[in-house]
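Lecture 7, part B: from sequences to assemblies.

Below are the input chains for today's worked example.
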Amino acid sequence: MSYSLSAPHRKTFTDSLHAKGLRPTRQRSCVYGVILDKRDHPTADDIYDRVRKFLPSTSFATVYNCLETLVSCGLVRQVNMARSPTRYCPNLTPHAHFKCTITGKIFDVQIDKNTLSRMQSLVPDGFVTENIDLCFSGKGHQI
Amino acid sequence: MSYSLSAPHRKTFTDSLHAKGLRPTRQRSCVYGVILDKRDHPTADDIYDRVRKFLPSTSFATVYNCLETLVSCGLVRQVNMARSPTRYCPNLTPHAHFKCTITGKIFDVQIDKNTLSRMQSLVPDGFVTENIDLCFSGKGHQI
DNA sequence: GAGCTAAATGGAATTATTCTAATTATTGAT
DNA sequence: ATCAATAATTAGAATAATTCCATTTAGCTC
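Predicted structure of the full complex, as structure tokens:
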């Protein structure tokens, strides 16, 4: 059984890959699908487990390759936190992350346009920003 | 030969450790010293090499332990960037980081008070922020 | 300085990720 | 639809980063 993306997601997916001359393969579609499906900031390991339910022969190398491809197309974002493997989330509106130092859980935090542009303007002339990562850590909600 | 911190740094160092009931050991002092000395965002590996010039029997485990201790005391900050080992910098004024995707070099970016407090206020009620990490990536200065 | 305990040591173990060579799938042209 | 070209996947080995563990050493209190 192969993973099936909803029509709009499939279009975004295919278009983004084609724009870079890349092929929309089953594995890439499935990796994207499982990340869209459960927005819990999974690790590559989590994604591997989920993808293999649909495509049991998928290897770790493929998961990593697909993730790198999706990130380079802007479909998926990496979230890097201290002392933990890289996590992934579908790239929707600009948002930050909050990691609870007690439970390890990661929460999304919306960033409004004004704050985002203020942040962007911190970077000096001559630098071209392609990506912004804002991560908070501390004591999360209702522990 | 042991590493020698300047008087003000030594005081900060000793006080911060004592405040947490921790001991200001030679290794911790040396790790802190080499991070203060060359502000190039070294990795644990870089720090290991530098520390061993002063304390040749220092092990990797010790470097990691010291770094964790210094981070927990707020003397040092971790910088986590995609696809690269954790880097460390002395914790001075609040600042962000910009990583050049071409050279891999990391630059400090100052954060003004207003922007910082705007960023802080993104976090919803009930969350207690202990740390903020802001990382930019893209094309750095004069490649 | 002796004793108590935290910290350092060396090496093995683990975890996360990347690499490599062989196989398979996708695409564009027929 | 079929074929060839080539991009992507596969399995497993290799590497890199970090952590763990049992023992030894050093810092602190009395």
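Note for the exam: Residues 23-26, 43-45, 60-61, 64, 85-86 of chain A lie near DNA strand C (CB under 10 Å from a C1'). Keep this in mind when comparing with the next example.
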